[in-house]
Amino acid sequence: xxxxxxxxxxFLHKSRIVAEPGFxxxxxxxxxxxxxxxxxxxxxxxxxxxxxxxxxxVVAPAADDWSLSSVVWIFxxxxxxxxxxxxxxxxxxxxxxxxxxxxxxAFLWGGGFIIGSFGIAAHQLxxxxxxxxxxxGCGLGLGYVSPVSxxxxxxxxxxxMATGMAIMGFGGGAMIAAPVKGWLLGVFQKAPDFLGAxxxxxxxxxNGRVFAETAAGKVEVVVASAAQAASFGGDAGVYVVGTGNxxxxxxxxxxxxxxxxxxxxxxxxxxxxxxxxxxxxxxxKPVASGMVSQNNxxxxxxxxxxxxxxxWVMLCFNVTAGIGVIGVAKTMMSEIFGSVMxxxxxxxxASTYVLMISVFNMVGRFFWASTSDYIGRKATYMCFxxxxxxxxxxxxYFASAVATTPAMIYLIGFYAATMIIFSMYGGGFAxxxxxxxxxxxxxxxxxxxxxxxxxxxxxGVLGPLAITSLRQMSVTNAIQNLAAKVDPAAFAEKFGAPLxxxxxxxxxxxxxxxxxxxxxxxxxxxxxxxLYNTTMYCMAALLVVAFFAxxxxxxxxxxxxxxxxxxxxxPVE
Length: 573
Hints:
Low-confidence stretches: 286-291, 565-573
Helix content: 55-70%
Organism: Thioclava marina
Largest sheet: 5 strands, antiparallel
Number of domains: 3
CATH topology of the largest domain: Growth Hormone, Chain: A
Keywords: Membrane, Transmembrane, Transmembrane helix
Strand order of the largest sheet: 1-5-4-3-2
Number of strands: 7
Distance between the termini: 11 Å
Protein name: MFS transporter
Shape: globular
Mean pLDDT: 84
Pfam families: MFS_1 (PF07690)
Radius of gyration: 26 Å
Order of helices and strands: HHHHHHHEEEEHEHEHHHHHHHHHHHHE
């Protein structure tokens, strides 16, 4: 018994939470689902992108506001630490039990939000990275592994169903979180001080920043369009930087407290079965029944096989493609369709889009995993990569087409394509454990799966890095192309500075694609919908590589097999 079973925290140890005879095992799944719903809200991160990128300007980005690329990395860091914590927490979980791990996860996840709240209020980006990214990410990983391990022990007769419920919670967490986050932001937001219409306020541009003279002296301002000001109930015109509130800090604080309370209560519902416990009337079947492989491979030996690394590449690239889009989903929908179909693609529409991502992510986990039982794991991943490649290549088509001919059919096509992509993203997570069992047997599949989750961490970096870097490159090219077309005199009148200061004006966020389009020659096509085209081509290329990794998959060679016989019934603690 671990020393952790004594002391102040001894009541959390697994030796103190052994279920009494007659305990209803169905009390455990709701607690597991509650924890996964809390941590699954990470998939609704993109809801925070707009308020964080205009935390100072509020109605429009100010010069000192954080860029989208710097904010998206917070999500990346959280996913990295999720994967690392999940991969390395298994041994500790077995030692101390699920309640201890769940309580620590609650402190890390809830506390991460609270620290992030202070970071937003103080405009210190590193605090958000530390809180939400590092500490919150570790909370994600610990929260992810604790319910699954516990449910497997309680439901040896229905493992797929039991773990599926928890995984459903993780995949569907954003379904609840997205509208709740949007509602909280609306409750706490406050419009900045309004000085008047743009033509009624004297402004001056210095080093790319816009300033206005007021009775209190010169103040930095932003110029908001009617669409930007509408969400705050304001009018187009000049607003004072630093006088409003997006509501992000208060939303972080509220969520941190709520998640902490829910996860603590859920963790205290955990019980572990007594040693030797099994469901009444149930007898274990031979483990190898129906398996592709009749042999087992040791966890350390698995890393020496090409099959492990082929699956690592497959999971990594499938997740990279999906997670990069998830991180900027709301922003991408708004940028591709918002400028050309503003009456349809409103802020509420974009929020609903994030909600539907969660729905398809959740449903995909059941659909694709169930499908793999009939057509096989290899064939299922073939569907992911072939169909996924086609769908990623279709997105640039829809984006380019809607820019020239705004039509609902292109929005519908984009919506359908991305939803199928997100279902395969979730399906990849749900199907990979069974694929591992097919290849390496069941004896060490849990540990092998944990190590494979480092592919998730890697994808958490690659996906957002690719999508933000490629998008920024497209933005820079688009601004330069538009600037070359506009009249220099109209540019100087619009922005209060000559065209030669373009780089400074762009760096200060004074010049944007939308504002350049206001003075562009008639007939100029808005490049905004095409900002993600290059990204989608790269994502499709990744899936092609993953396709060949799966195509070349063969059974593990005999010399890797583990001779130790697997027990038919394993006592549970």
